[in-house]
Amino acid sequence: MENNLKEIISRKNTGYKDSLPIKVIQFGGGNFMRAFVDYTIDVLNEQHGFNAGIALVQPTPGTSIVKLREQDNLYTLFTKGIKKGTIVNEKRIISAIQKSIDPYKDYSTFLSLAEGEDLQFLFSNTTEAGIAYDGFEDSLESGPHSNFPAKVTAFLYRRYRFFNGAKDKGLTIIPCELINNNADTLKKIIFKYASLWKLEEGFSQWIEEHNYFHNTLVDRIVPGYPKDDAKAYKEQLPYEDKMMVVSEAFLLWVIEGDETLKQKLPLYKLDEQILIVKDIQPYRTSKVRILNGAHTAMVAFSILYGKESVKEAVDDEFAGEFIKNAVFNEIIPVLDLPEEELKTFAEETFDRFRNPFLKHLLASIALNSVSKFRVRVLPTLLDYVEQNNKIPVHLTFALACLIRFYKGTWGGASLPVSDEESIVNIFKYIWLSNDYNKVAGLALSNTSFWDTDLSEIPGLKAAVAKALQEIDAKGIRSGYQDFIKEYEV
Known about the structure:
The protein has helices at residues 5-10, 31-35, 37-48, 66-70, 107-112, 148-162, 182-196, 201-210, 230-234, 259-264, 281-304, 310-315, 317-331, 339-353, 369-376, 378-388, 393-405, 421-430, 436-445, 447-450, 460-487, and strands at 22-27, 53-57, 75-83, 86-94, 97-101, 121-124, 172-175, 212-213, 216-219, 245-248, 252-256, 273-277, 409-410, 413-414.
């Protein structure tokens, strides 16, 4: 078996180039970034002549880039899943990374990247805890800084000084951390460090006027190195790859920006769900309501119906139809985005649910289901009632299933209830009663669950009580069918 990826791909038509100008500095080289940002840049290079090399910076001390360096910064990405109804099972050698740098061992090389004429972009994924201000990085000279925003501040200051504050040398900064307003938060912390370090006012002005910060929403499941099935993957390669990565086919990247960003970074040319929009918040809401909301709405319902995984549930004729009705007839109609756009995202979501390469156990997503329902499903239920003056029957039935699930047993067997002890104990008290009206009233009126008294919503208490009665008397399928006859108009 050959083991030099560079020699192998240089002999093939893969779009690989021996050297690309460094246009991107990237903080974080974990599985997600290598299957997300590095993948998209690599495809832009090959298919659209973007001609951008990436300098990868290790965000924390350790040895994470050693193996990547040993492979000349090359690695294989396996993409598996369903895309537009078709099974995807592909592999691709990613060659966009040109350098990988450990700033803790080579700080001067890290800073020297700031002097690059071609540098245009900064991407990052340093986990949700990465974009934070700790106040312990007490001077510019104390680098290498452990704090990510401190590193960025020092890097940008070097660039500002080297190019004498040139207007055209500011960077386009696109964080991928999973926090709301990630770019705005990073920018605020950079200003804090500039103040703490007493950097000249001109630097802060340059940051404000000539660097461009773009909030993002990212989503892709990246299991990473396939350690449980490494042999099967190794057999597909004519070379040794210790840094191979496995990813699902779905990719969502929403970036706040305008036409200028679209021309600067032409991600729209790729066959992916990549959007550059003026306001990211409707997309964040849609993602939470559709993807996460469908997950949460299906959990108790599907477990009580005897399903083990998300795929089993959506593939089942009855359960799958129930979940689709909840999404397409009750969740999508109350969201503030174009209907076709929402339907496309929903179809992609169901493709992800059906991914034959990932087994997503329902029990694993049942954790803290009450708080998840409050955040992911309840806002839709309330919006639906407000807009239609009636309850959404599928989400109401899902809520009844959730309350029934927290009883803890079903058919003489224990259910995988996993939540705070106080919540579990409250449900134990609620279920001491055999009166479904009382159970529904106690559960819905508990503001510690929902942050509001749901028993005040016209018709909801009676509907949940009816659903609970039907579920216990006839099971999920027959119970639902009798419930729907009474409440669906």
